Amino acid sequence: MKKLILIALIFSLSAGSIVTAQTKQTQKERFQPIYNITKSTIKSDNYQFVANVIYNDEGRETLDGELNNIQINKSSVSGRLNGFSKDRMILSINEDNSKISVDYNDEKQEVLIDIDAISHKITIEVKPNGNAFLVITKMDGNELKYGGKLVKL
User: Fold this and answer.
1) Nearest residue to 99 (alpha-carbon basis) of 121, 79, 81
2) 11, 20, 33, 120: least CB-packed within 10 angstroms?
């Protein structure tokens, strides 16, 4: 009889731990809130890309986000971005009638923003974790690549 009570006690304790075990969240479930914030930020039509790094095939440099950002307000795009320190280049953008298209990929939780400005083509890709990557293609075909975040203004 004591063995039977002991076995019943062991089963009841183990059953309780099985029931309270947490299910593991998928990556998509973990990033869903970030993706929703990204979508609402873009739909506000008043946000900015804050650049923290510039990079290319040869290397990367960190940037001050307060000095390196692009503001997007409806069809207006303005701001400035530094190039690599060795080039001593500063790219200034100030355009009022840019064509902006946004593609939301809910399955992959990614957003692609294409901005056709007069002097530049700008593409911003936002990943599920909220990291954003901006590529500016200048009229001469040269590209500048930046990493950063999108924030609501």
Assistant:
1) 121
2) 20
